[in-house]
Every structure is written in structure tokens, then in C-alpha cells.
Amino acid sequence: xxxxxxLKIAKTAGHLLSNKNIKKNRVxxxxxxxxSSYIFEPLMTSGLVSMGMDVILxxxxxxxxxxxxxxxxxxxxxxxxxASHNTYEYNGLKFFDSTGNKISKELExxxxxxxxxxxxxxxxxxxxxxTGTATRFDDTVGRYSEYxxxxxxxxxxxxxxKVVLDCANGATYQIAPTIFWELGCNVISINNKPNGKxxxxxxxxxNVEQLSKKVLDSxxxxxxxxxxxxxxxxxxxxxxxxxxxxxxxxxxxxxxxxNNTLNKKTVVSTVMxxxxxxxxxxxxxxxxxxxxxxxxxxxxxxxxxxxxxxxGEQSGHIIFGKYSKTGDGILTSLKxxxxxxxxxxxxxxxxxxxxxxPQEKINIPLNGKLKNDLIDKINNxxxxxxxxxxxxxxxxxxxxxxFLLRILVEGKNEEEVKKEINNLSNNIKAIINV
Length: 434
Known about the structure:
This protein is of the alpha/beta class. It contains 15 helices and 17 strands. The strands form five sheets. A five-stranded mixed sheet has the order 4-3-1-2-5, sandwiched between helices. The protein has a five-stranded mixed sheet with strand order 7-6-8-9-10, with helices on both faces. A hairpin with a 4-residue loop joins β9 and β10. The longest helix is centred in the C-terminal third of the chain and has 19 residues, at 414-432. The two termini are 26 Å apart.
């Protein structure tokens, strides 16, 4: 992401996503707290304004807040400047349409094909366009807070619940502590002082070590860790143990089944989800699990296609079809607090509803995207492994955000799983010559 590329993306997106039936399109631009977001925000604004669009600037705000504001402010599109869970050196763009949904992969590819081809880019019409305006809107945090509070039971009060919030020095740093305090929690906040470079730095949903220690030291009831743009949630119980997205989905599935509000008795997750979680849904709740490729957009598209009400990822994206069109860490944490208060039991017991299968994960650094011949060799190796040991589950995939090959092996025997992933990793390294 260079400044030049950002400007090209802005003009291209403005060209492709504009509503040609109206004179002026309204666009909302939000960002997280990383340093480069303050560079890309004016560039994105300039590109869209030059295409005749009126831009509304919100400042730092969680990604799900942008999705909500698009509807609230009757906008035609939205742009979130963020690299999500990655550290400050990275940045990226998330585009949303007029319904608050992320744009499709096909539309993303159209934008890329124009930006990366000078001839195509030069065909974007600019003559005769009246430039738009840019306005900074100050009421966004208040609107999002009220929206979140309306998602929980009326007159809900979380008094006497002691909560630690790890804001990852990201987009939730203002709104999360305030809303939990407003709802009566005894709030302790950590990593809520962003400086542009400390976002996701050994904190938040990607690293809960600090949160776990703080929960134990403060004798808190529960800890919530958000990622840089606030669309993920990982929980820490009162014993300092990590609760991942699978267990969060399992508890929410149980709650929705009890309330008879789980559409089609089906939940969507990804290939990374634990077999213990899948067996719990199937054998205890009589709920079907649909697995997709990794990425919250894949989960969301499957939910939309089948009109489903709950989905998510092991990494902490949780999507409530009733309330949000994207993962929302704060919303999910409030729904968990509702269940916790109603249950009147400890957090650790609340989530102790199934036994996980041992999973081992390894990331192998890559020099760039894998070539097709290497992908074929790795796929053949994976096929042979599955044939020899069908009782184990294998997932091998390239990361969507970094030059990494991610490997997962899962099975009932922890020792066998560890041995198998080491053998597999060594064989893959030999193939790609790492």
C-alpha cells in the first residue's frame, strides 16, 4: 500500500461503486489508529472527492461501526482504512456497499485489475465531474454506542461484574471502556493509549498474555481482547485461560437454540474450527456446521446465501445476522455478558461445554506467492497424508494477508498430532526450498 496506489484505488472504487442514478454519492471513511492511516485518509478523501463524491470522515472507529453508519447516514459506500490484526507497518482497505456489506471478491478483483493496469486506469472518466465535499462528523461514537446498547435486553445492568478490556491500542480504545462503564461494569482498561505504532503490538486478540495476567492480578470475572479494528474478540476467563472463537460460537449456539432463534439450526465457521466444537454442535445441540474457507467474508457470504443467523471464525470474528453484517467484538462481548449474568456461574464453567481436539499450527515464511507447480506438489503431499492417516485432519493454506504458508494438523492423540505436523512441515520446507 503506497500513497500512489491508495489514490488510484480511491478513484477506481469511486468509478465502480458510484450510484449513477444520483448526482452526488455519499461515502463514509473510517480508520484505525495506525500511523499510516493518517496518510491514507486524506489520499482516499482526495480520490473520492475528485470523482464527485461527498465524503464523511469519522476518525478512528471500529469496522462494524462503519457498517452500521452506512445505513444510519444513508451513505452509498464506506471505506475502512485498516490492516485489522496486523502490526502498524501494514495497512489496507475494506470497502462496503450501500447495504453495509463488504463488497464481493469479484468487485475487489475488478478494482485491482484497473489499478494494476495503466491503460485501464487511464480510461476512468474525469471530465465534467463536479468535485465533492469532505465533512468531519463528530457524533459517530455516540451513534454506535446507542446502537450497541439497543442490541441487549432493555434495562440490562452489569453491576458487580469486573471486566478487563484489552483494546489493542486500536479503534476500540475510546468506545469500549465507555460503553462497559455506562452499563455498570467495574472496568479496567489496558492497551488503550494508541501512539500510531503500538496497535496489535503483543496485545489484543492476537496476544492475550497481558490480558490474562491482568485478569488474574485484578481478580476480575472476565477479560475481553479486541483486535486493531474491533471486529474480532478473544476472551479470557477468571482463571486466565483463553476462550477462542470456537467456544464463543458454541456458547452462543446453545443460547440461540434455547431461545429458538438459531435459523435452520445451522452455524457457519471455517476449516480451522475444532472437531470438538463440531461434534458438540452435532451430538449435543443437533446443530449443523457448515465449513468455509478461512476469512470472515466467506463466512458472511455463506450466511447470506442460506439466511443464517450465526457464524464466525476460531480467530474471533463472530457475526450475528440479526444485529450486524460483519464481525463485531464489542457487540459479541456484550451478548456474552448477558449470558454470564443470567447464568450466575463463573466464566470458566460457562464455557466448559466441550472437549477440544489437540490442534497444532505452524507458519512457514514465504518469499512471495507460491507458484502453481509448488502448490500442486504441496496438494499432492497433503492428499498422501490424508490417505495414510484419515483419522487426522489437515489444513494447508497460504495466508491472505502475509507471505506465510499456514499448516494445521488435528486429531485425538496430541503426541501423534505434534509428530505429524513436524514431519509435514519439514517435507513442505524441502518442496519450497526454505
